[in-house]
Amino acid sequence: MNRGERGARAESKAADWLAARGLKLLERNVRSRFGEIDLIMEDGATLVFVEVRYRSRSDYGGAAASVTAAKRARLQRAIGVYIARHPHVGSRTLRTDVVAISGAGEIEWIPNAFEGPV
């Protein structure tokens, strides 16, 4: 299985796992020139941007640790583009979550992973 296939499988697993906890999937793989938003979901009235990270090994801190400052900055810019394209979104409560999946299939959900909504 190549990297893209592993990523798609991890995103599907994360979407299903979050849906089982009451979130509703709205969009997947929303691209902009700054990068990609893996999942956009609703948690009640809150719009949730989800970054999915998968690591088969934890030698360098695991999946959650792979969300670097540079990755966070790219994601925040991509979210800004999404909000600009969908002006009605600005009036909603926004949140950015991280779902980290290990090679053993363990899932760590980090709601509101970044300080502030985006």
The shape is globular
Assign a percent range to the helix content. 25-40%
Quick one: how many beta strands?
A: 5
Q: Give the SSE string.
A: HEEEHHEE
CATH architecture: 3-Layer(aba) Sandwich
Radius of gyration: 14 Å
**Structural class by helix and strand composition:** alpha+beta
Tell me the distance between the termini.
32 Å
Count, helices: 3
Question: Could you explain the architecture of this structure?
Answer:
The chain is α+β, with helices and mostly antiparallel strands and 118 residues long. It has helices at 3-19, 62-65, 69-85, and strands spanning 24-32, 35-43, 46-55, 93-102, 107-110. It has three helices and five strands; from the N terminus they run H-E-E-E-H-H-E-E. The chain has one domain: 3-Layer(aba) Sandwich (Trna Endonuclease, Chain: A, domain 1), CATH 3.40.1350. The model has no long low-confidence stretch (mean pLDDT 85). The protein has a five-stranded mixed sheet with strand order 1-2-3-4-5, with helices on both faces. The radius of gyration is 14 Å and the shape is globular. The protein starts with a helix and ends in an 8-residue tail after the last strand. Helices cover 32% and strands 36% of the residues. Strand 4 and strand 5 (107-110) form a beta hairpin.
How would you sum up this structure in a few lines?
The chain has 118 residues and is α+β, with helices and mostly antiparallel strands.
